[in-house]
Amino acid sequence: DVPKVSDSRGDSDGPRRGSLCDRHCAAINNVQGDLGDLGCHLHRPRVPLAMSTPSCYQQHSEEVCESCVVKTTLTAENAVEANKLSNNYKFGFKKWKSHVTARPWEDRSEIVKELYSDLNVIRGSGGSTLTCGNVLYLLLFGWWLSLLYVLVAAVMFVTVVGAPYGRLCWDLAGYFLWPFGKVIQKVEVPKSYQAGAGESSALLGGPTPRRWHPQCWAGTGYWHCASTAVWLCLGYPVLAVAHGLVCVTAWLLIVLIPVAKLSARTASRVLLLPPEQVLIQRLKMTEVPLEGEVILCCYRAANPYYYKYAVDGINVFAVNLLPLVLVTLVLGYADSPNHLTGSAIKFTLALLSIMPLSYYIGMAIASISAQSNFAVGAVVNATFGSITELTFYITALIKGSREGNRCYAEVVKSALTGTLVGCVLFVPGLCMVIGGIRHQEQRFNSRSAGVSSALLFLSVGGVFAPTLFSKVYGKLVCGECHNVTQNPLGHYLCHNCHFDLMDNNGTLYYSHVQPLVYTVSILLPAAYLIGLFFTLKTHTHIYDIHVSDCHMPGHHHSAVVHWSRWRALVILLLSTLCMSACADLATEHISPILTNSTISQYFIGVTVLAMVPELPEIVNGIQFALQNNLSLSIEIGNCIAVQVCMLQIPILVLFTIFYPTNFTLVFSDLHVYASMFSVVLMNYIFMDGKCDYFQGTVLVMVYFILLAVYFFAPSPSGC
Fold first, then answer.
1. I need a labelling partner for 267 at 20 to 30 A (CA). Which of 113, 483, 658, 662 fits?
2. 445 touches 496 (CB < 8 A)
3. 3-state SS class at 481
4. Pairwise CA distance, residues 89 & 288, whole Å
């Protein structure tokens, strides 16, 4: 008999399963590859699966299957990342952001190392330089940049004293027309060298370029030379601006970041060197290793893997979208009368600015949570976890209350319903489809998903209880009715019918519906806290979280955090402030869209306003699905949906107590049916704890069918 593995957490969770089941689950985790490197658990040793006999498998088959379904493994490179994953996962909030610590260089793949390498490495065989990316560089930048260097060279030759820089620009014109497979070196010119005939050098493969003036080569004499002054006044500014334009454009295109690095180093280094120290030559495979410092050596202008590139832990997409936030704020508040742009453009910019701000808020929350204990992480998540959505909803309700327009409240209800339906159907469905294409069948923690599903049922029932109550006891009021049969006792065709809750001076609403709304708003957060206590304290074995350390033996690295706690706190507060400003601009300029658009306000709310702020979370869910960790992908959608019902809606109800608005917790029939059907379908799909791309396709298709229903639905009354 194989001895059982003891549990390091004590006996509070009951007896542990035998080592046979642990080995089988470890083997399954090895095959599935949870979150990166495979099967290197801290809590359980990895034992080969072949050590157990077939008869033993048959005896414990049911035990093995049950245990494997309820196991969730999280992989972390260090204690800080483990703390972030454990805190965020256990607390149930949605901000699953990228690494908050710098990953050791030796642990990264060769593809990632190439992204961060400087353009000064000479490879033995770079291959053919005739690639699509290099041709794209020639068409976008190469031809006009080379022509500009020729013009600057002509100007330098005209000045006579700038002739050395003219020869340098002439050489650089040929280099930037096609820089691939060429090298720019910094060579040291001996002081005894005279401006006579060129010397032959085996290193340079030919005569040394004659760009040197003896009187300008001594200590700081270079910067006092007449040719240098002419160059800094006439030649360098033009080329620096051109390279700056190339750098910004290539950086925004992301895949052309090598071109941005090339231009940045040219403007900051090459063009500021004495011309006699700059050597340009074409590399040959038969050349001996070059002596001297290599400044530039580029083989490829484009790399499709630059979507993984990060600056100080921030993804390059979030970095590129940050200027959009500044443009939105300046344009929105400086051009209030809409002289430069219209409301539609400002609304679009404000909505797009929410995406990078949501990313920065998530990164700040993850950084603080990773460097703090569980209590601090829980408070930060509870305070700022839904700040993106709540900021927009509250500003929209305030604007609707000031204008006396009920349409804003209906748009907020549509956005809440759209977030719920999208996170229940679209997010897990899309993750299943993309993950199922790479992995034939994926398994997830069905018991933890069952807890989230139970919370969803409870939250949906509580949120829509006042709506169902109003349907039963409300008075049906119609705006216009016509007798179809011309008989007073016959059938009537009525339009614009709704249930009136304000009959008899609002007795039904104020005496019955409103107390029910307040009761539900108290019970839902209480149920959420009970769910947290259930998963964190009394039934932690349901989640059974294992933090894996996947470093090779002997490789122990101290965690280098990208953002300190104070820096993360400052970024969190600034991002929240900018988020409030962008939400204010979005609500300020949404009114013309709602009044002039032919599209239903329902559709605008459930699509644009609901799903755009959740795009970073959708990307995170897809990444987890590709890594065959569907449990986290499902948790992302479930956590957002639970937060909408159990936290965001009660907070909005609490806000209406202190600041009266048109928001009432009574939804339209379309919202009720769509939400309930979505939750029922999701629970049916998640029952067996495994899925494939077909089940994901079903969820996505049902979501698009509901979108079609919202698209063709008439606008709500009052809009």
1. 113
2. no
3. strand
4. 55
Distance of alpha carbon 72 from alpha carbon 85, whole angstroms: 12
- Ramachandran bin of 544, using left for φ above 0, alpha for ψ from -120 to 50, beta for the remaining angles: left
pLDDT digits (tens, 9 = 90+) for 167-200: 999 999 999 999 988 889 888 765 544 444 344 3
> For 671-713, what is the HEC assignment?
HHHHHHHHHHHHHHHCCCCEECHHHHHHHHHHHHHHHHHHHHC
Contact 396, 108 (CB under 8 A): no
Q: Single out the residue of 421, 416, 651 nearest to residue 525, CA to CA.
A: 651
**Tokens 């704020």 -> residue:** 329
Listed in sequence order, the residues at least 6 apart from 577 whose beta carbon sits closer than 8 Å to its beta carbon are: none
- In the chain, what percentage of residues exceed pLDDT 90? 19
For residue 311, the Cα-to-chain-centroid distance in whole angstroms is: 14
Query: Is the Cβ–Cβ distance between 129 and 268 less than 8 Å?
Result: no
Question: What is the DSSP track for 138-151?
Answer: IIIIIHHHHHHHHH
What's the length of the chain?
A: 719
Ordered by where they begin, the domains of the chain are: 114-189+225-305 (no CATH), 309-483+494-712 (1.20.1420.30)
CA separation, residue 328 to residues 35, 341, 389, 563, 615 (Å): 37, 11, 18, 26, 19
Question: 33: alpha, beta or left, given left = phi > 0 and alpha = psi -120 to 50?
Answer: left
